[in-house]
Amino acid sequence: MKLATKLIHAGQEPAPGNGAIMTPIYQTSTFVQEAPATHKGYEYARSQNPTRTALEACLAAIENAKYGLSFSSGVAATDAVIRLLLPGDEVIAADDMYGGTYRLFTKVFAPMGIKFHFVNMSDPESIRAYFNDKTKLVWTETPTNPLMSITDISAVSRICKEKNVLLTVDNTFATPWLQNPLDLGADVVLHSATKYLGGHSDVIHGCLMMNSAELREKLYFIQKSCGAVPGPMDCFLVLRGLKTLHVRMKAHCENGAIIAQFLKNHPKVEKVYWPGFEEHPNYDIAKTQMRNFGGMMSFVLKDGTQAAVNRMMTSTKLFALAESLGGVESLINHPASMTHASIPKENRDRIGIVEGLIRLSVGIEDIDDLLEDLKIALDKV
Ligand SMILES: *Cc1c(COP(=O)(O)O)cnc(C)c1O
Question: What's the 74 CA to ligand 1 centre distance in angstroms?
């Protein structure tokens, strides 16, 4: 089956008994058993829920994975992966990544004795220096949030296999429509389904996909034991969102390409970060491992003062000023003070998350209206 068909059908059967075509929302905490310990796959909804089962099967299918596990948020899914580790273990992680992941690593897990090395993953060979016998995990995100750096997943995975270390790729920005990290050698794929997979800014959800049965067992044990599971309504919303992922992504990519070009040619814009430009440092890798370039981008204003940034951020009408991304509606965000405020300023400046940096999540509204909205706002800068 091809991806567009999987998105609509995988894991979903007409409801037993009445044939409902949409997976029912099994709003129940427990399941009746005929005799002690004779349950039919469902005993208590923290461990299993039929709406979640359907979603997990669909999530696995769309990443060409054997297994999917779904969590109450993207961060909860990240948390579950790090819980595979023990104090003393080490992680090599990308230095440009989602602020909430950085916060979880440095503020929750580092004090518990897990050591994180933050490195520039756009040059895979440079990570070799950080491996030692305590290294258990490599964590990367590609494209990264917000600077759209690209990691060569195949190259990093070859190094990880050589060193016998697990590789997790956060595929939130690309989505399975643009890139499948497991096919490129990753061991675990993570999504914040809050973003493109859900796609309608109406649910918080996260998931992990993997091929190893052993890894699935360990992560399922953590999911059940730690309890960061989504409710059935949330699972239903993600299932429904997934049905149009391919249609939405085509529109995000189309609008994204036009807006990236428009910003690049605009006299008030200093620089645009978008992997579809030939001058992007890892354009060749982006072109090989991704099927298109998506609707996420960041740009730097020539006038990087706080006043100019504020004028831009408060002048758009269609681009709503908000955190998050990947919904049908366009959003504008100021990473330094919003999504990435938890990263210390000196680290932000070093990697390029400067005051004048603005991130766009380009939605699927009419392109003429989006361009007009940005034109008017840039005129006010
Ligand atoms: C939003 C996001 C997360 C965290 O997901 P939540 O659903 O907000 O918990 C992780 N990674 C990336 C790249 C994200 O954009």
Answer: 5
- The ligand 1 atom at the shortest distance from the C-alpha of residue 100 is 4
Burial category of 350 from C-beta neighbours within 10 Å (exposed 0-12, middle 13-18, buried 19 and up): exposed
pTM: 0.96
195 catalytic, yes or no? Answer: yes
**Could you tell me if 56 and 191 lie in one domain?**
yes
- Residue with the nearest Cα to atom 1 of ligand 1? 192
End-to-end CA, the chain: 49
Q: What is the CATH number of the domain that holds 339?
A: 3.90.1150.10
Number of separate domains in the chain? 2
Q: Looking at 79, 95, 152, 170, which residue is catalytic?
A: 170
Whether 217 and 299 map to the same domain: the answer is: no
Per the prediction, the chain carries an average pLDDT of 96
pLDDT tens per residue, range 259-275 = 999 999 999 999 999 99
CA distance linking residue 63 with residue 159, whole number of Å: 22
Residue 46 catalytic?
A: yes
Query: pLDDT digits over 341-364, tens only?
Result: 888 888 888 888 999 999 999 999
Ligand 1 proximal residues by C-beta, below 6 Å? 73-75, 98, 100-101, 141, 145, 170, 172-173, 192, 194-195, 204, 206
